[in-house]
Amino acid sequence: MTDKKQNEEAVSAPLNLDPFKSVDKAEMKVLSAAGEPTGWVWTIAGPGHPNTIALEDEILDKSLEEGRAKEAARVNGKKYKPPHKTSEDIRRENAEAAASRVLGWKPDTVTLSGETLKFSKESVVKALRDPDYGGELTRQLTEFFKSEDSFSGRSGKK
Q: Cys-Cys with 45: which of 96, 101, 104, 110 at CB 3.0–4.6 Å?
């Protein structure tokens, strides 16, 4: 086949975008602080998963509401006063947002700081906020969210 004929066929065939589709969920293997596998695996919602979309909608809705409140204050000649939040409020909100994308973990029950935790959103929040373990878990989860390969399907299950 000539190059010209190959080019004509390539132009007439529709481009298949399926290879760009992200996976709905992926597994994050939790490592110890020393980088060793722990056997604890978290299932994380991908970019197109309903949990992720709901979280994005919630964040956008809060932003739009704040914008409307600022505009209303400006139009009415008043100073905008944001709702009072403490650093503790923000840490909890961040942990809850991250936890909303965690769909499960294996094994189903773990021990953290002497407490047995069965998977639930509340348990994920507790793990992420634990003073001894939360920092490392949050770091790994954040890196997993940011990694281009986590949900691309290129890397298989993580």
A: 101
For residue 41, give the nearest of 31, 51, 49 by alpha carbon: 31
**Are the C-beta atoms of residues 49 and 35 closer than 8 Å to each other?**
no
The burial class, CB within 10 Å (0-12 / 13-18 / 19+), for 4 is: exposed
Q: Are the beta carbons of 70 and 83 closer than 8 angstroms?
A: no
Record the pTM: 0.79
Q: Which residues of 77-93 are buried (b: 16+ CB within 10 A; e: fewer)?
A: eeeeeeeeeeeeeeeee
The 3-state DSSP class for residue 143 equals helix
Q: For residue 39, which of 105, 137, 116 has the smallest C-alpha distance?
A: 105
